[in-house]
Each structure stands twice: as structure tokens, then as C-alpha cells.
Description:
Blueprint: E1 2-3, H1 6-16, E2 19-20, H2 24-28, E3 35-47, E4 51-52, E5 62-64, E6 67-73, E7 82-85, E8 90-95, E9 98-100, E10 105-111, H3 113-117, E11 120-123, E12 132-133, E13 136-141, E14 147-150, E15 154-162, E16 184-185
Antiparallel strand pairs: 1-15, 2-9, 3-6, 3-8, 3-15, 4-5, 5-16, 7-14, 8-13, 9-12, 10-15, 11-13
Amino acid sequence: MSVIGIKEVVRRMKEENLITGLGGRDFSNPEGTGIDLRLGAVHKISEGGAYIEADGAAGLGKRRGVTTEEIFRLKEGDTQDELIVKPGEYYLVQTAETITAPLDLMPMVYPRSSLFRAGLLLLATKTDPGYTGPLTFGLTNLSPFPVKLQLGARFCNIVFYKIEGEAIGYRGQHQGGRVSHGEETQV
């Protein structure tokens, strides 16, 4: 697997809508091999009770997510809300941009170093080919001090890896950017 270069990412954004909703800076003046993504929405967990069962003789296991409440969303214009992340707090955050991952690419997201330099930990993972929607991550403050994060701030960087061979497209329940769910059978 190899990383595709920035000119190929930009070409595919223009021709295939690989990433839509980008801020002007990241579309017109990208650098390195990835594209910075902005904080688009913040969700807090309002009710617990999550569980994930193992698959068994009866079939696929069941799972239940937490209940969340959206507390901030990126607005049009220059005035944006600010999230104050106190020590130990945990949020689910989403990108302002939408990803459309083709079957020959696997997006990986990395936090921008300004996050961990401030004490914030972004919990991210790979994105499967075939996924479409905003990306959702965990965000927590590991420092002893509050950190202010404004909506629309660039907080992570997405890099695309070329897949060698065949991939099976994502068919999970979070397609389209769903943040939380009640009880359901795993896909």
C-alpha cells in the first residue's frame, strides 16, 4: 500500500468528489500528502449503556451505542461557536467535510500536532473504501487545563492509501455519518 500524492488527491477531489465541503485554503493551497479537515460538529454523550456482543452460533452479535446530543455545528459566516474541552471530558466530533472513499483508496486520519501539543487526544481510525459521509472521532483532554477549540478550526489531516487488489465496500451502520444508534445487529 502506498500514499497517493497531493496532486492526485486534488485531481480526484475535482473529478470524483473525493472530499467535498472543503475550506478554500485546503482546496486551493494544499501541502504535503494530505488535506486538513475542519471541526464541523460536536456531540456529547447524554446516556450510556453501550455494549458490543461477540458473534456466536445464533449469528452476528448485537450492539448498542451511546445516546448523543449535538451541541455545536459549524455555521455559515465568520462567527463560530467555541468548544471548551475541560480536563477528562470526552466528545464525539465530526468533520465539516464529506468523504466519498472509492474502492481503490483507504483514507487514514491523523490529528494535527497542534491538538496534542495542547493536550487533546483525537481517537481516529481508518475509513473503509465505499464509505460516504462526514468522519466521526473521539476527542478528549488529557491535560490538566481547559482547551478552547473553535468550530471550523483545522484539527486533523486525511491521507489516502492506494489499495492493491480487491476491496469490499463499507456496508456498516455508520454510513452517511451516523453518530450513535440504539440496539441493532452488527453488519
